[in-house]
Amino acid sequence: MTREIGSVIGGKEVPNGTAYDSINPAKVSEVVARVQLADAGTFSSACRTAAAAQKEWAAVPAPVRGRVIASIGRLVEANAETLARLVTREIGKPYAEALGEVREIVDTCDFFLGEGRRLYGQTVPSEMPDKNLFTFRVPVGVAAVITAGNFPVAVPSWYLVPALLAGNAVVWKPAEYAAASAEALFRLFTASGLPEGVLNLVLADGQATFQGLESALDEGTVHKVGFTGSTEVGRRIGELCGRHLQSPCLELGGKNPMVVMPDADLDLAVEGALFAGFGTAGQRCTSLGTVIVHESVHDDFLDRYTRATAEAVIGDPAGEVLCGPMLDHKFAARYEEYLGWIQPHHTVVSGATGRITSANARGDFSGEGGLYYHPVIVDGVRPDDRLFLEETFGPIVGVSTFTTLDEAVDLANRPGYGLSSSIYTTDPKSAFRFREGIGAGMVSVNNSTSGAEAHLPFGGNGKSGNGSRQSGVWVLDQFTRWQAMNWDYSGKLQKAQMDVAEVVPDLGFRL
């Protein structure tokens, strides 16, 4: 029986809305959940509810909030297999990857449960006697969090866990095509004992969300926006927040380069390129965009990469496969547009392209009614090609060549994104020169462009984001504000820079 789900605000379900079917992309005839999509007014109402609940939550001692985060981690851990299976069913992510995604939530909770005891400020010496200076971290208030569906439970936890730990209330708008996974995660969070209204779930489409967010910002009921999604939408949200003198946390797209040096372990580089390029069917913000390979090893690398791709298993995400289907019909349609960017001067070395069907099969696999697509490797990609410059969200990887490392760095930076990057080399000098020159927020050496750990900063620059970071202690700067306090117990007014004790030196002294 198909589950019907809707928004939950202040602990109460909001049943009415526009019907939307979240499907299983591995079997498009199967409806995973019937979703009631809310309107803009529902979103702004949720923000008012969160604002009313936030002060009481902020008054809960931070170490106690940390224990709530610990409970969330244990709840997710106890339900890991069930949640992972739902993720696999709803977005077609291979079960092993889905299980790893759920593990990321547990890791995030394990890291932040102790941060409730480490929301440190500082005591700062004053330039005047009988006066103390202090700094404090204080919550921002209400955070509106809008997330994509390619990581429907892990990436939201990067926002929700630190935001709640720091004493904020949250309105969370997940992707509608991953609504069932999001609703399941929401129920695990609320089972931890969070007070009603502190975490609210709004299921809505993009237009209603933007309009509701605009109203909430006008009303002053949202004080921080976190967004994971496309660069195009990120720009709109950045502009909206800028008009309200807010700095959003933006985690956007990527055109992530992998540089293969002449001294690289080519088998290792191929393994990294296979996972980064085609894992999750290339639908990660950190997916490999272009392999920039030294001209002396180009042919050898390409031959190995092509063979490895041909041997990789694509199919039912419940099994042991490299990748399953596209996330949803809209991503499949968009990916077919990207395939149209292949030009006559390109060489598709991987064989068939497009959707896998009985008429366009991949070996014995005919697609079985799902949104499955052939992985594509395009050689001869040039620096001015759209395939080189723009994000291609799907299983397509371009290949270019270089002569010098400086040229490789220039090529890697050319698209203007700055999320993730990778270099394969056995020379430490090359690795550090690449790190110094690349504009990406994340650099991997002899590892793929994809993969994150819960205690390392995650985020990008340029078209990939506004420099904000998620994960680790760094994300706390997104969900807290620094407050400075001075306490003068001298019994008189001491004026800074004026009533300063001074020790007079003899600057004319000479030996």
From TrEMBL:
Its EC number is 1.2.1.3. Residues 18-484 form the Aldehyde dehydrogenase domain. InterPro entries: Ald_DH/histidinol_DH, Ald_DH_C, Ald_DH_CS_GLU, Ald_DH_N, Aldehyde_DH_dom, ALDH7A1-like. One of its GO terms (molecular function) is aldehyde dehydrogenase (NAD+) activity. Keywords: NAD, Oxidoreductase. It comes from the Bacteria. Pfam families: Aldedh. Belongs to the aldehyde dehydrogenase family. PANTHER family: ALPHA-AMINOADIPIC SEMIALDEHYDE DEHYDROGENASE. Homotetramer. This is aldehyde dehydrogenase (NAD(+)). It comes from Streptosporangium lutulentum.
